[in-house]
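stage 2 :: seqdesign
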């Protein structure tokens, strides 16, 4: 089990990590989720022992890893750029990782073969990595990280360079593989769809601190504060009553150009975009309604079978009964 206590990283006056606590149980898949600059990659690198400026405690099964170099922590690392060696073929890349972990020469080829089989690259052993697609290169990097049989696998935005269709397919494959192998995984991403699909528990980061911890369902259904809600794509507004609430775009509806009740507000459509099974319509509220900032319009999901209004149209927005949760700012 990985346990991290009060992990802190400062660069002069800038605090990259501020007393972060986290744990990853044996066989658990944990995602660290947050926007760029939130500290999630610094957290991963500090756990790996790659950040000399880190202070706090990183331990495995209660044993403090202070002073233990990265290559002796028995952690597998995989980064977004894959860091493959272009002058080595697929097998050579995987074998290199095993040699770095001190695996005996007699065991290297068999361990590499098994790792490539696990990621679906049997028959690719002597292919140049330059000839591979982005998804295949990702699999080579994963095989190299898996081959030493790490007690913790850490991945930093490993799918970020891939197209959406391939990312969606690989997320499912990774979850199946990690579960089958019983791996402990710490997975960093800025994409909440990836985090929710892959992880059993999600840690949301904001400005170097942990903003929320919970299951994907808990985080999605009950964001801890306004930051988490906005990051997940919710509206945060007090336009409908005196309570600041987080309301998903599908918790709002367009009802026309004139108010029909006390719970409706008026505004102007300032943007419209198509999203496969719905439209997203941005509505800037009329002056004097709540404290909604002019540059933070309400975002409303319009079903695909309804004709969305045009930019510039005056509309009325109402909240679906029961939609939204109170949040602190």
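stage 2 :: out
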């Amino acid at each position: 089990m990985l346990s991290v206590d009060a992990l802190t990283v400062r660069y002069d006056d800038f605090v990259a990590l501020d007393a972060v606590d986290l744990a990853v149980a044996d066989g658990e898949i944990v995602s660290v989720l947050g926007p760029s600059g939130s500290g999630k990659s610094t957290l991963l690198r500090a756990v790996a022992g790659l950040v000399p400026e880190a202070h706090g405690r990183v331990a495995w099964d209660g044993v403090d890893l202070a002073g233990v170099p990265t290559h002796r922590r028995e952690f597998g690392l995989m980064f977004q750029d894959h860091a493959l060696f272009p002058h080595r073929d697929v097998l050579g890349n995987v074998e290199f990782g095993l040699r770095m972990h001190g695996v005996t020469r007699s065991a290297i080829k068999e361990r590499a073969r098994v790792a490539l089989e696990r990621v679906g690259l049997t028959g690719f052993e002597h292919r140049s990595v330059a000839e591979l697609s982005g998804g295949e290169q990702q699999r080579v990097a994963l095989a190299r990280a898996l081959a030493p049989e790490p007690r913790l696998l850490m991945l930093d935005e490993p799918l970020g360079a891939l197209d959406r269709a391939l990312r969606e397919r690989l997320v499912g494959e990774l979850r199946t593989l990690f579960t089958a192998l019983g791996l402990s995984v710490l997975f960093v991403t800025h994409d909440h769809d990836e985090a929710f699909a892959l992880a059993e528990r999600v840690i949301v980061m904001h400005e170097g601190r942990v903003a929320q911890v919970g299951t994907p369902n808990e985080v999605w259904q009950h964001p801890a504060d306004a930051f988490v809600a906005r990051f997940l794509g919710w509206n945060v507004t007090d336009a409908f009553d005196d309570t600041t609430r987080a309301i998903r775009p599908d918790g709002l509806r367009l009802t026309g150009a004139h108010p029909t009740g006390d719970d409706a507000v008026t505004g102007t459509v300032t943007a419209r975009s198509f999203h496969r099974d719905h439209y997203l319509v941005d509505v800037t509220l009329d002056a004097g309604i709540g404290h909604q900032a002019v540059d933070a319009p309400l975002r409303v999901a319009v079903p695909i079978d309804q004709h969305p209004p045009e930019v510039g149209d005056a509309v009325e927005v109402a909240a679906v009964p029961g939609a939204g949760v109170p949040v602190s700012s």
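stage 3 :: structure notes
- Residues 27 and 181 are 8 Å apart (CA to CA).
- The two ends are 34 Å apart (CA to CA).
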